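Can't attach files on this board, so I'm pasting raw text. These are the components:
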Amino acid sequence: NAGVTQTPKFQVLKTGQSMTLQCAQDMNHNSMYWYRQDPGMGLRLIYYSASEGTTDKGEVPNGYNVSRLNKREFSLRLESAAPSQTSVYFCASSSRRNQPQHFGDGTRLSIL
Amino acid sequence: AQTVTQSQPEMSVQEAETVTLSCTYDTSESDYYLFWYKQPPSRQMILVIRQEAYKQQNATENRFSVNFQKAAKSFSLKISDSQLGDAAMYFCAYVDRIGDDKIIFGKGTRLHILP
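---
Top answer:
Structure tokens for the assembled complex are below.
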């Protein structure tokens, strides 16, 4: 059981570079989410997708774009990376809102 | 907007003792779901327990139980017989039963287990 797979696990970028974080789930879940985790800030929702073909902004969407490519995949793009986007990024999925979220292992992203 | 507050950034408990982690939330909704997640040093996020707001009975999962006080908007997690493996960050989370699918997390409480 792969669950939620995120790639890459680590990445270092220079300011201004672009990058796409990939996420795929094999549990046939409708909802998918992108979070960032910073020390002392908990998990903050960047974007989410309640179903294939829909995406909505979360708490901190500025500087990011997402694509729900199909039911399995939900990617997060940084068009012009900034040092403030240095963080650990988590992708998650769930079948329904009253069900637990399944998380990927996270991507540690550093912007120099 | 809904908010989730965990007022204890860090806590420590002696092994085998009981500890309670606090969580309060703010919402104008009457029906919602609440969760506690655990994040050990491995960084994996693991569901500990969940509660449906319309259920009066407090949820229990083995050594983990909640004290859900709907009127007070409080959702604390009690860990009994603490074990070294319980050392982790614990996050409280909230989501509406209807409406948008946003899940709101608290900032977390780091729990240390003292041998």
